[in-house]
Amino acid sequence: MSGPDVDRDRLAALLDKIDRDVNPEALTWPGGWPGQIEAALLDAVYSVRARYGGPDTGVRRVVKRWIMHRDGSADDLTVLAHQEPADLARIVSNSAKASRRLKAAIVVDAAEALAGAGLHHADDFTGSDSQRRAYLSVTGCGPVTWAYLGMLLGKPGVKTDTWIVRFVSAAVEGQVTPKQAEHLVIGAANKLGVTATQLDHAIWQTARSCTTVKPTT
Questions:
Q1: In the predicted model, is pLDDT for residue 159 greater than 70?
Q2: CATH of 37-152, one of 3.40.1010, 1.10.12, 1.10.340, 1.10.10
Q3: CA angle 202, 207, 212 (to 5 degrees)
Q4: pTM of the predicted model, to two decimals?
């Protein structure tokens, strides 16, 4: 599948940096939560400024605690929408905050907004403008985690957070916008024969582990 048009020199520079710095094993994408929209929403929100962790730590621990609470079925946003934020924080054993709000409160409000837009189950996710607007209407929910929500549900994409933008900016030796970073990562993924999601994950893992990666200003 062809990607967006990108500057060839910048794309070549990014490919060079990927070849030098990214461990091919990091291309293994954990898989997200296809078919489990409650799990995907929790992951998207709780990943903000957090360590993702391993299978049983960090953000994935939060999600797994909720799935256990739901007896293995986590694909109905109306369930999350009817939770009290304090109860949700207790169930997942995480009271972290973002945008000065409990992440649990952000999850509950986002679930309610999305359900109001007709998005109840993973199969309802289309990424439509109405669904996106509903998500972005919630304080603490932004375009980066919206893109990530789709990725977690199995839609290829790029989560252009600070780490991705920094890595790409360092590669091209100049500051790029999130949209420019997205296009370059998609272009690089196409050249490498991997999905944008796989390459996004590998770059993110690399950037998070390398404190010397800084954007050029």
A1: yes
A2: 1.10.340
A3: 150
A4: 0.87
